[in-house]
Amino acid sequence: xxxxxxxxxxxxxxxxxxxxxxxxxxxxxxxxxxxxxxxxxxxxxxxxxxxxxxxxxxxxxxxxxxxxxxxxxxxxxxxxxxxxxxxxxxxxxxxxxxxxxxxxxxxxxxxxxxxxxxxxxxxxxxxxxxxxxxxxxxxxxxxxxxxxxxxxxxxxxxxxxxxxxxxxxxxxxxxxxxxxxxxxxxxxxxxxxxxxxxxxxxxxxxxxxxxxxxxxxxxxxxxxxxxxxxxxxxxxxxxxxxxxxxxxxxxxxxxxxxxxxxxxxxxxxxxxxxxxxxxxxxxxxxxxxxxxxxxxxxxxxxxxxxxxxxxxxxxxxxxxxxxxxxxxxxxxxxxxxxxxxxxxxxxxxxxxxxxxxxxxxxxxxxxxxxxxxxxxxxxxxxxxxxxxxxxxxxxxxxxxxxxxxxxxxxxxxxxxxxxxxxxxxxxxxxxxxxxxxxxxxxxxxxxxxxxxxxxxxxxxxxxxxxxxxxxxxxxxxxxxxxxx
Amino acid sequence: xxxxxxxxxxxxxxxxxxxxxxxxxxxxxxxxxxxxxxxxxxxxxxxxxxxxxxxxxxxxxxxxxxxxxxxxxxxxxxxxxxxxxxxxxxxxxxxxxxxxxxxxxxxxxxxxxxxxxxxxxxxxxxxxxxxxxxxxxxxxxxxxxxxxxxxxxxxxxxxxxxxxxxxxxxxxxxxxxxxxxxxxxxxxxxxxxxxxxxxxxxxxxxxxxxxxxxxxxxxxxxxxxxxxxxxxxxxxxxxxxxxxxxxxxxxxxxxxxxxxxxxxxxxxxxxxxxxxxxxxxxxxxxxxxxxxxxxxxxxxxxxxxxxxxxxxxxxxxxxxxxxxxxxxxxxxxxxxxxxxxxxxxxxxxxxxxxxxxxxxxxxxxxxxxxxxxxxxxxxxxxxxxxxxxxxxxxxxxxxxxxxxxxxxxxxxxxxx
Lengths: 484, 416
Known about the structure:
The complex is a heterodimer of chains A (484) and B (416). Chain A is an alpha/beta fold and 484 residues long. In chain A, strands 5, 6, 8, 10, 11, 13, 15, 16, 18, 20 and 22 form an 11-stranded mixed β-sheet that branches. Chain A has a 10-stranded mixed β-sheet with strand order 4-3-7-9-12-14-17-19-21-23, with helices on one face. In chain A, strand 3 and strand 4 form a beta hairpin. The radius of gyration of chain A is 22 Å and the shape is globular. In chain A, 56% of the residues are buried. Chain B has 416 residues and is α/β, with parallel strands linked by helices. Chain B has 2 domains: 359 residues, no CATH class; 55 residues, no CATH class. Helices cover 22% and strands 42% of the residues of chain B. Chain B has 9 helices and 20 strands. In chain B, strand 2 and strand 3 form a beta hairpin. In chain B, helix 2 packs antiparallel against helix 6. The chains are: A alpha/beta (484), B alpha/beta (416). At the A-B interface, strand 22 and strand 23 of A face strand 19 and strand 20 of B.
């Protein structure tokens, strides 16, 4: 079944693997290139931000100037010239966010339709509310009204700064302080848009919330900031998707995502990251430096990260959980596929602070072509984390002869009653499984695709329905041309 | 006192400080020895070590001129070498027939050749760099082809505050078997920084069994660099019940096809001890296998780390690499850090690692209690069986018995 789908999918793209590589021909507004206090003031002015927000940004900028990029990751890239990037790009005529879809340029609506994200609410799959971010601005947020009835706030972060300053002030930067590291500081200084979600006490969010990020303008960095707060006893599931046009130059994407779960709240965060990975010679692609961190602040809270990473020339991403509340839970499920010259250094951090906290890490890495794929993770049990538990499993599959698969786990325990279990394996595709599939009439490529899908199943099944199907296709497409 | 002035005032006893080549080498190392915050927190050779060892450098050695005494005792079947204070050698049954022993003090050319050969090993390792700078003891052990030997090697110190910086070279020629049992039994305040270099030629088998039983303040930094040629085997087992700060860093290169390396160990730590362990295996040829397994038993305020790494070169297809680290924490304030790393560039490999840290299994304890053992007995029983599962793979019975006796002694002495 899978292989049939794969073949259909591949032939549908007519040999061109990256179907999201088109450019929307739309005029965009941007200030001059480069990073300075003036640019930050410009962004803040454009977004009509209050004084405190501008001060916060400038403080972060000051910190950033003193910082160096972290160097420990297993990735190589030329020095980023921060003065050669546009820090703000907005489709023309977006000085104010349109009130309804009728006011939006049809080209933009088309773009999202092409990407498979219809913004017209009547067309939207029941149960998914979308916030669409195009370059530096959020262009539309669907189902807002319906969610408002339940007291759920789902809007762009720019709107939240205007309408819910108290919440933003309290939680922004509380999980990722602006001075955490250079990319976090950069994002704090220049973040343009992103999503804000607040789920009130005891509310079970009835639909999946989702953001779709699209980089369109050339030489533009995308710096989005997402903040999700789940109040006591609430539940929310959030999806994130990303694409960018096919270009020969590299583009920078440095996002910060902060999650806060209060007592007994649960946040489920899923990502399908499919930024443009560069061509088969390693030209172009997105540099994806993302900081994602969740704080299980309350007792019995839970944060779960699920990610499917197939895109980007460079992925530098460690969605983490700080398990502060007693009995809190953290989960991390990841599939990272690298092909051609892609480099991925991704993993997670589980910091156990509270008593009886539990974490689970399942990571699957697949390396093809000449790519380098690294799992890097930290599990740390502090003195107070009595009776806590961690289970980690990270498996790598090597398909390409020139690729590399690396595992760098850091395991730290300061508590005698806690248990850490870690296992990892690296191997090539099992010959016997391959032989069995071939014997049943599958071609080599189909067989590999089937085995890889099986290898990832443990993670893919954690994705919400709407994403699981897409992710499965994505896994198959990522393998195309590299096996056999 | 800074490194340069310690070096200058002790030149007389530092080997090679009168030889242009080694002097320049040492000069360069002193120049590069800058312990800034970055090095202390991020360099793997200094990150987990007891910081006093690299921060305050004292230097004292009784004499760096070697004295070699040879004794023949036909009653003893094994050969033995006792190294006292770094340069007093007492040899038993070391004949020139199969084993050739010599100090490198008077063989300057050979020494330069060896230093030059291994100058690129342990790059960025600040502890081994200290060893090269203050280099004051060295011997060369040469085993002839097709021989079979058993050697006991014992390190002793009877001069208080001695600092030994030894480089010992072992050349195991083709198709040779060697069983080397190396013991550290130092009870006086001292510091030993010893680096062993093994060259295991094709078809040879080496079993390197280590017992470390140093008392408080008899600190030890013990490193090995092993080159394994085609179809050779090197197995190492480190059993550490010392009460001092100990560092064990053992690196192996699988250079020839069909090589096999096992680096295993068990260590105990109590009180305020800091124990730092690292193993690294570089698979540079196809069809090789490796195994890195360490087990830790920690109590009181002990801090320990075990870093292991398997590197597989693109050429090294059909590699099998296995890593395991297991730690038992017996007290509230003990701390264990483990980092089992895999770096793989070949696609036809089978590599895995496992790591666990935790307390006793309550069910097992309960079972033993129901059989009439008191809590302490039950815990001791479980710790010993935890060690035995690894020790059982060693054929040398006397070593196993000695290790278990030492474990027993440790368990009686420490609270948990």
